[in-house]
Amino acid sequence: MKLIRTSIGLLIAFCAISQQASAAEIFVETESFADRGGWKLDTQFIQQMGSPYLLAHGLGKPVDDASTEFEVPQSGQYRVWVRTIDWVARWEAKGAPGKFQIAIDGKPLSETFGTQGAEWSWHDGGLVDLAQGSRKLTLKDLTGFDGRCDCIYFTTDQDATPPAEQGVLSDWRRKQLDLPETPATRGPYDLVVIGGGYAGMGAAISGARMGCRVALVQDRPVLGGNGSSEVRVWAMGNIRRGKFPRIGEIVEEFSDHATKSPGSYEEFGDDLKEQTVLAEPNIDLLLNHHAHAVELDGSKIESVFAFDTRSGQEVQILGNLFADCTGHGWIGNWAKAELEMTETGRMGMSNMWAWDEEAAPTDFPQTPWALDLDMADFPYPRDHHGQWFWESGFDKDALGSAEAIRDWNLRAVYGAFNAMKNRDGADKHKNAILTWVAYVGGPRESRRLMGDVVLTQEDVVAKRDFPDGCVPTTWSIDLHYPKEQYAKKYADNPFISVAVHDRRVDRSYGYPVPYRCFYSRNIDNLFMAGRNISVTHEALGTVRVMKTCGMMGEVVGKAASLCALNSCNPRDVYESHLDALLELLKLPGKAHRSTPSAQIIIPDDILPMAGPQGPMSGKDPKKEDGIVLDDKDATLRGNWTSGTGLKNYVGWSYQYASPKSKSSATFIMKFKEPGKYKVQLYSQAHQNRATNTLVTVLADGKQTEHRVNQREKSPNDILTVTEVDTGDGNRVNVTISTEGADGNVHVDAVRLLKVQ
């Protein structure tokens, strides 16, 4: 009897296996749809949920359908499974904003998706009869509020449930996609750069121009990272200055010059960035490729594995050197590089947004699932945009909870706009519309990979001199914290931040960050550039802005060429070839060579050499009539602040001081020809300036005092103070003082103009 039971059990099991083996299966990833319609390809959270997906980011208006054709191998009744999520369910919020339907040959399934599951999971879509042949599959957004769909699975085995995803490109998914066991290979390259933001672009272009064969791997369809049209953070950090004023010239070629943050789509120049990279014959650009693993040989990276985020096709990228420019330090993490992540006090992620006003009233749907906000619960989005301080995720898991942090930001934005349209702001915003909300987040802080030097706040402030100091960081030590007045209602995850600045950083010359922060201390062939370099949490506050990150990449690219030339590792460049690196850092950004051993060519169209204080942003005093001294040539006493907001200034900036600051600026004007001169001030008018600024003039032993009005506009922003006769002297001293001033005193430049 026992034997019979066993035999029957085996027979049943065999039948089940046979049925499963004969079951027809169809697997469709939404990222591979032929027509995405208005749905966006979201690749930010592949490491968390295993795959790219399509996102219906319509700002409250349903987006156009996404559609594709698929083949049915045999007629029959199929069970439909859809991998999706109810993206507000993790907070038990009311409603399901991400609802969507799936239609086959134009007929929607009875089930509505995006309505269940606080985590990504399979939603049973019921049974459908499919005839053999080509069928049309359509995603139909119902809300415009960020519904999301990863993939659709059909099976004639109506009792089968697809497995939960286990990591990126799971074995089950590989089988469904019929991916080859061995991926295609590319390379070997001298340098493989992973991450296409400012740091990665700087590294790739610099390395390629110094003769390296480079692969640049970027998981988005555009380059620029936070400085792309997708995130729209304007590029900050002064370039082309300090010890090596040529560093930053490459960044200058592709950097945006946005007037706002967030600015307009056009201001961020996605096409310019791509064209700049594609112009380099030594670069292979792999857009839409997500790196997800590395292959190691001891303490050395042999290759990086990446897959096409549109098709799933995998590629193994071989290289001699690798640069982690991912921001999150993914490559270093997989390679077991030594790293740190600050436990508490970390900065968060921003999703900026913009709104406008139509000529006629507009509607906006009620958002019961968004954050419950009234107008007093958030800073009013002046100038029609929500800025960098719409930031959350402080001390949350910046990696594992990245999607939840982004989604919390979306709930905050939609809740704020709901308050403007449907709550206590409704009367003043009848014509308001949402025009743009970033669905790609702008993160600030996560992993930092440790190098032979870990830069500290004290190093930067004290201007500690490292022999390999090279990249000038000029941004203040800028750390973000939740803003208390808005954090009371949402103490667990505040969504408005405040920046706390340590302004002791030299903003003009810059602090030279050492090269040893740009390579791993324990992975032999790993560089890093960007916000994941070897610094402390505090020092990250100054180095993390984009132009500074781009300059790091420029240094990494040049160092990589020395590694290729000398068959050595990044540490060896410091220990044995530092002089050669420092010489390369003096080259113009457009200098190039075909291979690391070829002759360097300096083209005719290089940028003019900038000085230690950077390229002059104002009028060149040497090109002005007469004898002109800039404020940098003055002896300053007291408390002066540098400014550039009032245009038409001379040199790099101007200075201003408050009336009670007891400040003065003295110019010693030397000349060769004695005679009669006009004493003039370059002075840009402003309503907060003094009407009675004291100017003391010493000429031919005679001292005179004068009061000038710096509030009124003067011709070409030049005020004439007085005329002097120099006698036989060869100098005139001019002192501008705050003594007795009724407003801020402005110091830009002083001119002696000979009276003809």
TrEMBL record:
Keywords from UniProt, A to Z, are: 4Fe-4S, Iron, Iron-sulfur, Metal-binding, Oxidoreductase, Signal
Range of residues in the leader sequence: 1-23
Q: Which Gene3D superfamilies match?
A: FAD/NAD(P)-binding domain (3.50.50.60), Galactose-binding domain-like (2.60.120.260)
Q: Does the keyword Oxidoreductase apply?
A: yes
Which intervals hold domain Golvesin/Xly CBD-like?
629-753
Which GO molecular function annotation, any one, does this entry have? Answer: oxidoreductase activity
| Name the UniProt record assigns to this protein | Soluble pyridine nucleotide transhydrogenase
Q: Whose protein is this, by species?
A: Stieleria marina
